[in-house]
Design brief:
Helices cover 69% and strands 1% of the residues. It has 703 residues and is mainly α. Helix 27 packs antiparallel against helix 30. It has helices at residues 4-10, 23-39, 44-90, 93-135, 139-148, 155-160, 164-177, 198-211, 216-222, 246-264, 270-276, 284-305, 311-334, 337-349, 353-363, 366-393, 410-429, 444-450, 452-455, 480-484, 494-497, 504-509, 513-534, 536-544, 548-560, 562-576, 579-597, 606-634, 646-669, 676-697; strands at 398-400, 403-405.
Length: 703
């Protein structure tokens, strides 16, 4: 892995080199502070004051240069505007063409300025993170709170690109006016749907990336845990198109869809199946959760296996799922709850979601990777809705020889047939992508490609930069590489500090308080959702005498809200508020949904249950996307690669939450169905309160 400081130098624009944040100097100062504190030469107050002053000076330098460049661009646009106004009267096609090229040139220079701002914004975040980690202070909270909220904030200029929007608007409007439309020139204000110039598309992509604003596609892809790249590059490295195979991608998406169907198809009937085998209805928690228990382990070995192959893990997954679903269906005729549970454990051992994510990051070209990531999430949401809906359709009862086919066993038989067809399709059409070197460890560039779903590769910020700009600014300091290594003040050797985590324990040690809070939030939302979904059949049967079909309709309706809600949030809400604001608001709404779900004194009604469940589920879905997006930005770069990466940690946190939730349902069930609702909601409420408090404590570090 190339040190961050060196990458920062390599990606600076040569003409503007003196106006970037001096990351190397500030890092050396942090090291000096540490030594001086150890010797007693400085105290905490002096360090904070001196570092604040130095960082203020760096930001002021960046902002003043930014304003100067904005003025230069504004002056050029003013001159072009005068030419444009005179040219409109003459209808000189050649002059109009020249004007369009001139506006494009301004647009290209604006791209450079946006690239400049983002590189500096990332440098500021990194040095603040390093300072906190070195000294154990919460300096980032203090610095961001005092600077960002000040009426004369310079920090806002860096992080919110204040004023650049007017320049973008001027370029967009004039290029739109210069497009010939059958002899007339239309304004973007009169007809917003006018096709835009490619340079405007590039500028908009850069602005979206800089402000973390997003559209529906990007917001949806966040649910696949797409981590944002540590530093933007003028030219993004592309996956070799020869590795891309559409049918193989489609097979991974179908695998995702079928697995989610497999997970939720038994939820409406799990309580009745348990009763038919002589167990309590609340044992449905164990039946549903057995799959999640096995997934805790399968996620690890599938993540490691995907380093070597994609085809073999998918074959293994399909075979294991066929066995698991067959056992689940046969449990009825052999009258054994143990066969039922073993079948569900096998299904969990076949969870290949880590392979599905890894295939998209490794083998899908950058230009369509965001669409593929969104398709991955959409397939999951569709499977979640189709599972219960399909269970509602399987309301029949007949025998073939000694095999029983009814609402309890048919989910197992249907999924067995589905996975069998999938296995045949997989064997006939999947194409294993070529690997450059199956033995040697991957290079930094390969690692960045392989972990795109966890690390988040987005649109190029500066499309026209020359590759010759890179690497021209290295000085002759022989110790520079060692000095720039990201050891974060640990006692690790420099080489060791750059390696990916080798185990779950070492990965946990890399977690900062902000990351731990985000994982707690993810745990909370998965726990609350699992309680709602897994006990739905028992609760609705006890309070409302709902049939299996009614439960299936309710669960399917919840699943169908995922995409519409993401469209609303991704298209509108995320462009109006900061992600941390949406995060905290979503947690509060989940809290209100849980409170509203309790059965207190008055009669428990269908309206109360459905409305509270809908509020809780929708808020949790919104929370998941924002939570994973923020998690990608506060997580260590060492957790963006390797087997024990950030994606695995979040998956394990969510899976463990589901296991604990399902176990809670079963244990509380021994106290009677009358107490099930309130006693299972109580842990959700306490965890939710804890996550809200923790979010407030780390709120200013989520910038």
């Amino acid at each position: 892995m190339v040190a961050f400081g060196k990458k920062l130098k390599e990606r600076q624009l040569q003409d503007w080199q003196g106006y970037y944040i001096n990351y190397k100097l500030m890092k050396k100062k942090v090291k000096q502070y540490s030594q001086q504190i150890e010797m007693g030469a400085l105290d905490r107050r002096q360090v904070l004051k001196d570092f604040s002053r130095m960082l203020d000076n760096q930001i002021e330098k960046i902002v003043l240069f930014l304003l100067e460049q904005q003025g230069v661009l504004a002056g050029r646009l003013t001159q072009l505007g005068e030419q444009h106004n005179s040219g409109q009267q003459q209808l000189d096609i050649a002059k109009i063409s020249d004007l369009r090229e001139a506006y494009r040139a301004v647009g290209q220079d604006l791209l450079k300025l946006l690239f400049f701002v983002e590189v500096n914004a990332i440098g500021i975040r990194k040095i603040l993170k390093k300072f906190d980690k070195r000294f154990g202070y919460r300096f980032t909270d203090y610095y961001v709170k005092t600077r960002a909220n000040h009426p004369y904030s310079q920090l806002q200029q860096v992080f919110k690109h204040v004023g650049l929007g007017a320049v973008v608007g001027a370029i967009s409007r004039n290029l739109g006016d210069l497009q010939e439309r059958h002899g007339s020139y239309l304004s973007i204000y009169d007809q917003p749907a006018l096709p835009e110039d490619p340079v405007i598309d590039s500028i908009k992509a850069a602005v979206h990336r800089l402000t973390n604003s997003t559209n529906f596609l990007n917001f949806l892809a966040q649910h696949a845990f797409i981590m944002q790249e540590e530093l933007p590059t003028p030219i993004e490295e592309q996956v070799d198109d020869k590795r891309y195979h559409f049918m193989s991608l489609l097979l991974n998406l179908v695998n995702t869809f079928l697995y989610m169907v497999n997970t939720y198809i038994i939820v409406p009937t799990a309580d009745n199946y348990s009763i038919s085998l002589g167990a309590a209805a609340t044992l449905c928690g164990v039946v549903i959760g057995a799959m999640a228990v096995a997934q805790v382990f399968s996620s690890v070995y599938f993540s490691a296996w995907s380093n070597k192959s994609y085809y073999k893990p998918l074959i293994f997954s399909s075979i294991v799922l066929i066995i698991g679903n067959t056992l689940y269906a046969l449990a009825y005729d052999v009258h054994s709850i143990w066969v039922l549970l073993i079948g569900r454990l096998f299904c969990g051992l076949g969870s290949a979601r880590a392979v599905n994510r890894r295939y998209i990051s490794d083998c899908v070209p950058l230009k369509i990777r965001m669409q593929a990531s969104a398709a991955f999430v959409s397939a999951s949401a569709l499977g979640m809705a189709c599972g219960p809906a399909l269970a509602g359709l399987l309301q029949t009862n007949f025998k073939v020889y000694k095999l029983t086919f009814n609402e309890d066993t048919l989910p197992g038989w249907v999924m067995t047939i589905a996975w069998l067809f999938y296995l045949v399709w997989l064997c006939l059409t999947f194409k294993e992508p070529a690997r450059d070197d199956p033995v040697e460890p991957k290079t930094t560039a390969d690692s960045a490609q392989n972990d795109a779903l966890e690390k988040g590769i987005r649109q190029p910020l500066l499309l026209n930069s020359s590759g010759n700009d890179k690497g021209q600014h290295l000085d002759n300091d022989e110790n520079e590489d060692d000095d720039d290594i990201e050891n974060d003040g640990s006692d690790e050797a420099p080489e060791e500090s750059r390696k990916a985590a080798a185990s779950i324990v070492s990965a946990y040690r890399l977690l900062t308080p902000s990351v731990k809070v985000q994982l707690l939030i993810y745990f909370m939302l998965k726990y609350a959702m699992e309680i709602l979904l897994s006990e739905s059949s028992v609760i609705t049967s006890y309070y409302f005498n709902w049939s299996t079909s009614s439960v299936a309709i309710f669960l399917a309706a919840l699943g169908l809200t995922v995409l519409p809600i993401n469209i609303l949030v991704g298209t509108y809400i995320s462009n109006m508020f900061e992600e941390r604001q949406i995060l905290l608001a979503s947690e509060i709404v989940v809290f209100l949904g849980i409170i509203f779900s309790f059965h207190v004194i008055v009669r428990y009604t269908v309206v109360q249950y459905v409305c509270s469940g809908l509020i809780m589920f929708v808020a949790a879905e919104v929370l998941e996307g924002v939570n994973l997006s923020l998690l990608s930005r506060v997580m260590s770069s060492r957790l963006s690669r390797g087997t024990y990466n950030g994606g695995l940690l979040s998956t394990e946190a969510g899976t463990i939450a589901r296991v604990i939730a399902d176990a809670t349902i079963t244990l509380v069930g021994y106290l009677g169905e009358k107490n099930l609702l309130n006693l299972t909601l109580l842990p959700s409420l306490l965890i939710c309160i804890g996550s809200i408090v923790a979010t407030c404590c780390t709120y200013n570090s989520l910038y």
